Amino acid sequence: MVGYILKLNLDPRFLEEVGDLINENKLVNGDKRLINGVQRLFNEYQRLINGVQRLINGVQRLINGVQRLINGVQRLINGVQRLINGVQRLFNEYQRLINGVQRLIK
Question: How far is Cα 13 from Cα 96, in angstroms, rounded to an integer?
Answer without folding.
Answer: 122
